[in-house]
Specification:
The protein is built from two helices and six strands, in the order H-H-E-E-E-E-E-E. By secondary structure, it is an alpha+beta fold. It has one domain. Strands 1-2-3-6 form a four-stranded antiparallel sheet. A two-stranded antiparallel sheet has the order 4-5. The chain is globular and about 45 Å long.
């Protein structure tokens, strides 16, 4: 990742395009990742890339039960484009530039939208 942050418009566009691919997945497909016994923690996908103007970024996508009894799945994503400093002088502090999420019901509809 670079030392300069990405402008919000570009960051929102990139994150929106990334989340769109998760919105196109079926509830059953997302639930299978949560029900997979090989996951001992929340499934997290990490995507690294470079924007059109050369700014590097990392997107982290977390998939978790929002309401397991109702089988509502939350997908949360954030995009970080720059290091925001260091803790104790050597541990990078990363603060997302933008974040977004959605909740999917078993019938494939999106809750709260």
């Amino acid at each position: 990742m670079g030392d300069r942050p990405m402008d919000d418009g570009t960051a929102n566009q990139i994150l929106g395009e990334c989340l769109a691919t998760y919105r196109q997945q079926t509830h059953a497909g997302l639930a299978a990742r949560l029900d997979d016994s090989s996951y001992h923690h929340t499934p997290v996908d990490v995507i690294q890339g470079t924007s059109h103007n050369g700014v590097g970024y990392t997107i982290e996508i977390s998939i978790l039960w929002d309401d397991k009894n109702r089988r509502h799945i939350r997908v949360m994503a954030d995009l970080t484009s720059s290091n925001r400093g260091c803790l104790f002088g050597f541990i990078p502090v990363l603060k997302p530039d933008v974040a977004d999420d959605f909740i999917m019901a078993p019938d494939g509809t999106f809750i709260g939208e």
